[in-house]
Design goal:
elongated; single chain
């Protein structure tokens, strides 16, 4: 091929690349996917910066930031249901649970507020060469608020929550799992959201305990993809069994949060938060004793049971006896 044809070839490739971006932006706009539209626009800005068109790249980034800041306060990103191969791997939702609904120890609340602050100011951090916290590992007993934390982060950041279906990933696609993981992380780079890998120990178990083969390849692939994960989205892994996780995982996460069963001081907050105006209970010490060893989820379920029992008998408040009875049922494994 003669050298005089090289510039023309590069120009054709450049035009083709721009055409792909424009097409993607049109599709996002038609679907009402604001964040998808912005993500492609930022890809265009990055592309122009690589070509040396720094002024144009800056103008595109500024336009995206201005458009995002002009959105009504509290508006939730339009939820575009996943399509294609990714649709079988995630469940999309728009959580309504707020930070005020989350009752956790002070150290965990401080960490969660830090994540929110860094994500809300991520453009400023990135402009100065710093990456916001975007890879979280949540570990602790069932019902202690891990999944709820992911929902709160999604709601507070006005982002969709994408829960990864690890059962499908590890069974239906055995032999193709590494490829499917790449699809998920590519989606996280293109579609801003909160991506939750729940019951993560199914994927992140210690490699030393696995036979050489598919299980090891899956975990190695996840480690690579996590290391390269785009800061555009939050990637959250939640596990009830930290002890069996591969140690290599921990240094790949920006933040590891350890959840625990509620302390005595938390019991009243959790139950009152669920009972609302029905919570006129004078004997909290009796309630706290009955609640010992129960999770946040158990406390909420017990509060709901006590409230329904009170309402069905015609009362407008819940008594300590109502709560103790409901808590005893949870202790015994009742529904």
């Amino acid at each position: 091929m003669s050298t005089d044809r090289m510039p023309a070839t590069r120009e054709v490739r450049a035009i083709a690349g721009m055409a792909e971006h424009v097409t993607a932006m049109i599709r996002s706009f038609s679907a009402g996917d604001d964040e998808g539209f912005y993500a492609v626009a930022l890809q265009v800005a990055a592309r122009e910066a690589r070509l040396g068109h720094n002024r144009l790249a800056d103008e595109i980034r500024q336009a995206v930031d201005a458009s995002r800041s002009a959105l009504p306060s509290g508006s939730v990103t339009h939820l575009a249901q996943p399509k294609g191969e990714v649709a079988d791997l995630v469940v999309a939702s728009n959580p309504e649970v707020t930070l005020c609904d989350l009752v956790l120890p002070e150290d965990l609340m401080v960490s969660i507020k830090r994540v929110l602050a860094e994500q809300r100011q991520r453009t400023q951090l990135l402009d100065h060469g710093f990456t916001p916290v975007h890879r979280l590992l949540l570990d602790g007993p069932p019902g202690t608020g891990k999944t709820m934390t992911a929902s709160v982060l999604a709601h507070e950041l006005s982002l969709p929550l994408f829960t990864v279906r690890l059962d499908s990933l590890l069974s239906k696609y055995m032999g193709e799992t590494a490829g499917k993981l790449r699809l998920l992380f590519d989606a996280a780079a293109q579609r801003r959201g909160v991506y939750l890998f729940d019951e993560f120990d199914a994927l992140g178990g210690d490699r030393a305990g696995n036979d050489v083969g598919e299980a090891r390849r899956i975990l190695n692939s996840f480690l690579v993809f996590l290391e390269q994960a785009s800061p555009e989205s939050l990637v959250i892994a939640a596990t009830n069994h930290r002890a069996i996780l591969d140690r290599a995982l921990f240094r790949r996460f920006d933040l590891v949060l350890t959840y625990r069963l509620p302390e005595e001081s938390d019991v009243r907050l959790v139950i009152r938060g669920r009972l609302g105006s029905l919570a006129t209970v004078p004997r909290w010490d009796k309630v706290k004793k009955a609640a010992a060893g129960l999770s946040h989820a158990d406390l909420v379920k017990a509060a709901e049971t006590a409230a329904k029992n009170a309402l069905l008998r015609g009362d407008d408040h819940v008594t300590a006896d109502d709560l103790v009875q409901a808590l005893d049922e949870r202790q015994a494994g009742g529904a």
